[in-house]
């Protein structure tokens, strides 16, 4: 510790007071800085009284309610400040949760369930985000290519955003129901925004695409080879928001408030397509005319184990989970009593 030098006279007393004030100020900054730099706990802005949540998200239709909640002040009403950062895929957000870089992340349910099952990260789901509807998850191709039917994909490359994940598993399920030997397909990883151009160039024979990139691919002439969320995978839950169990235990009020704000926004987005369309150009960077063409799925306003069990079944059927071992209820955050 550096002690202030005391000099005789008025100037010395003034210097002493200044040095003490400076030392106190530095101490205050260091104390607040520790809280602000900790990613494992919700940090509170002492001036505004708001709790900051660092959240990972993607430029997809799935997260429209998140932007709606921010724009309409639903998070602010709950005393929350949401700092967003972009992730390329849901699986990429999970290590950031573990490291404390993110408090909550958007991601697909397969990634969350696998992380929980493998014990790498103790995942706690805090909000549902998106559920498939016909036309929201498509395997697309170029109509003038060698691929004219699903069986033509054998021996060729198909783009998915993450291997052995919801994107790939729904494609595999849909292809198998059509008699395609998926072991003969080379699945390659690619970010969703890059898929339309890759199809156009012929880098891949097909791509598993979500909105708004389905509409972009359509503009380049791509067509639907098959709908991945039809038949056995109809109405499949796609994605949600999750934290670690440690974070929700340390920040139960913040988690409950986030859940409440998202529930309100999800319900509103579900009943107001125009509100979603108006938001899409801002955070996905698509043209307004494209936003009017996108196929929009469902935004569930509740987090329910009964709905998510279909994802568990999909994973079990594809060998991604041992049969009858995973308890989806153990992964769901329940708000403290009095906060429901």
From TrEMBL:
Keyword Signal applies: yes
UniProt keywords, alphabetically: Signal
Localization of this protein: Periplasm
UniProt keyword Signal present: yes
InterPro entries: SsuA/THI5
Domain (SsuA/THI5-like) ranges: 62-267
Cross-referenced Pfam families: NMT1
Chief place of localization: periplasm
Recorded superkingdom: Bacteria
PANTHER family given in the database record: ALIPHATIC SULFONATES-BINDING PROTEIN-RELATED, TAURINE-BINDING PERIPLASMIC PROTEIN
Annotated family: Belongs to the bacterial solute-binding protein SsuA/TauA family.
Protein known as: SsuA/THI5-like domain-containing protein
Native organism: Actinopolyspora erythraea
């Amino acid at each position: 510790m550096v002690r202030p030098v005391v000099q005789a006279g008025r100037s010395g007393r003034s210097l002493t007071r200044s040095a003490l004030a400076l030392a106190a100020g530095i101490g205050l900054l260091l104390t607040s800085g520790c809280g602000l730099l900790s990613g494992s706990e919700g940090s509170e802005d002492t001036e505004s009284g708001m709790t900051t949540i660092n959240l990972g998200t993607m430029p997809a239709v799935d997260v429209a309610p998140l932007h709606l909640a921010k724009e309409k002040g639903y998070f602010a009403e709950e005393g929350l400040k949401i700092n967003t950062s972009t992730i390329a895929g849901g699986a990429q957000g999970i290590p950031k949760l573990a490291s404390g870089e993110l408090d909550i992340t958007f991601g697909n349910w397969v990634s969350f369930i696998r992380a929980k099952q493998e014990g790498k990260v103790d995942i706690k789901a805090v909000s549902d985000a998106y559920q498939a509807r016909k036309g929201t998850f498509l395997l697309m191709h170029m109509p003038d290519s060698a691929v004219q039917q699903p069986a033509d994909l054998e021996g060729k490359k198909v783009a998915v955003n993450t291997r052995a994940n919801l994107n790939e598993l729904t494609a595999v399920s849909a292809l198998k129901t059509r008699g395609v030997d998926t072991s003969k397909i080379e699945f390659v990883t690619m970010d969703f925004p890059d898929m339309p151009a890759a199809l156009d160039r012929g880098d891949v024979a097909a791509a598993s695409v979500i909105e708004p990139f389905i509409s972009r691919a359509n503009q380049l002439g791509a067509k639907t080879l098959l709908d991945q969320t039809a038949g056995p995978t109809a109405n499949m839950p796609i994605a949600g928001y999750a934290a670690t169990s440690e974070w929700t235990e340390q920040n139960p009020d913040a988690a409950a408030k986030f859940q409440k704000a998202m529930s309100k926004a999800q319900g509103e987005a579900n009943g107001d397509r125009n509100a979603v369309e108006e938001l899409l150009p801002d955070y996905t960077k698509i043209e307004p005319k494209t936003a009017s063409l996108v196929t929009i799925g469902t935004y569930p306003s509740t987090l329910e184990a009964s709905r998510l069990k279909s994802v568990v079944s999909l994973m079990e059927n594809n060998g991604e989970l041992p049969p009858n071992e995973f308890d989806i209820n153990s992964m769901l955050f329940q708000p403290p009593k009095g906060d429901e």
